[in-house]
Amino acid sequence: MLRQTPPLEAAEAFLVAARTASFRAGAAELALSPSAFSRRIQLLESFVGAPLFDRSGPTPRLTEIGARYLDEIAPALEVIRRATRRLRAPGGAVRVSASHSFAVTWLMPRLGALRARGLEIELIIRQGLDGLRDGQADLAICGGDAAPADFASEVLVELDAFVVSAPTPAGGAPIEQIDDLSDHALLTTAGGANLWSRWFEQVGRPAAPPRASQTFPTLQAMYEAAASGMGLALAVPLASERLLAEGRLVRRLNAGAPIGQQYRVVHAERPRRACTAHEAFVDWLKTETAASCDRFHSTPVAHEHYA
User: How far apart are alpha carbons 124 and 136 in whole angstroms?
Assistant: First the structure.
């Protein structure tokens, strides 16, 4: 009997190619060479007997047939992924996706304590919801200003922010009031370009243009730059905790304000399936993040002036 379904690895490559910027990016995600990835796409096109991508431009784009095929097979492949996850790890490690900054600065130092409680966590470093969408993760911890439309989620932390710097930043003027911030470089991240404006609005001041602002790819990089004396940053709960505890960052001014963003725990399935390990991890996460927020909000203001 002739085969009626295409090879699963070819269908998987097709799904990855459809949602990534290029075949090269798709190949990297599946840990394949670009040529091996392209062969999988060609195998699927040969199997279905139709071109799925238009390769005439600088990057391949779905054809009309390819877009229809994607809509029809994507839900079926997601069912296969979910069934496989249940079979491979019915009660094993919880696969948690988090950004590099959140994972390194907050979650990883706590994994030993979690293991001592009998909870095994497989940590996946992925930005946003990509780890859920491609089936690699069971849960994701994400920051943002809105709940995702396609996944169930719960708010962990509503984010407030206050100004931080190195204990003795070089060459800066003292900070005694909010208006003094305009004399300093204000650091930010690529995804948080408007957070300073939001913060200034919340504390009742117009957004002050930074003297020499710099943008960093991640929160961790921005906080390290601030701790090195490069300027001021807005500290938010959890991600800034380690550097505040070590004294490498100190709080400037009493003023703190909400920035309209949250950390959320996002679940791979809706409705969320009952899983003892998942439930235990989420319960622990809520308790631990609440304790971190309490410590954050009790951070004292450093009164010493800049050198």
Answer: 8
